[in-house]
Structure formats: structure tokens, C-alpha cells
Amino acid sequence: MSVIFTLTSAAVLAGITLSTATTMAVIDQVADGTLDINKPIETMFIDCDLLQKALTDNGCGITVVSENEIIVQTQCGNMRYVRENNTLPFGLLLDEITNPDELFENLKSFEQDYGRNVQAYTYGHIKENLTDDMTIVSEEVLDDDSLYLTINVE
After folding, report:
1. Contact in structure between 68 and 84 (CB atoms under 8 Å)
2. pTM metric for this prediction
């Protein structure tokens, strides 16, 4: 019997809609002056380690306060990712935004990298946890960067 897994990038699966909503909410609030610095903007980021990796891969200076708070310094302003506990997604708080357009590009890049990191982690986790009666028959990268795995279970 074969089992087929399709590992769709988080950016493709759920992130495109949420990330677009997140980045658009940020830009709209900064541009029209309605940004409430005390109210976090919802993000798709749940895994603290993968978020840290996405931020550092993009050249951001980060300070990890806890697994529920990360302070980020960028050239276009400061950000703080916060959440009440590690089962919830991070919210984004902004401070001293000097370039909303550059911020928008940074956020898109963070979201894409985070999605790739989630996909790579999941792929590695599946491969590490295959039992002796399971073998990967084929692996294929699809046009949308999803991974298509066929696993034979004996």
C-alpha cells in the first residue's frame, strides 16, 4: 500500500491569504495613521524558532525576550512579535516605522521564508520518523513548490 503526502508550503496553504491580509493591514494602518501601537496585528507565525530563523535569514537584528516575545530591529522601523502563550500565533506590534513600502517588502519576505522553513521542518520530521516498514518511493517538487511524497507502507 502506498500513502501519498503533499507538503504544501505554509505560504501556499494558508499563508498567502493571511500574509496578504497581515501586510495589507500593516500598510493601511501606517499609511492612514490609524495604527494602534497597543493592538497586535494577527500573523501566521506560530513556531518561535522558525520565526527567528526567517528574521535572521533576512538580516534583522532580533532580541528574543522569551518564546512568546521577539523584538526586531530593521532599517524601516522596529517590530515586536508577541503572544500570550506558545499555542497561539504571534501578533505584530510596530514602532517608529520610517518606510512603510520597505516594511511591506520585509514582511512578505519573512512570511515566505517562514513558510519554507515550516515545509522543510515537516519534510525532515516525516523522513526521520519513517518506520522500518516505510520507504519513500518518490519525491517531486510541484510548480507551487509543494512537495509530493509517495511512501510505501508494507
Report:
1. yes
2. 0.69
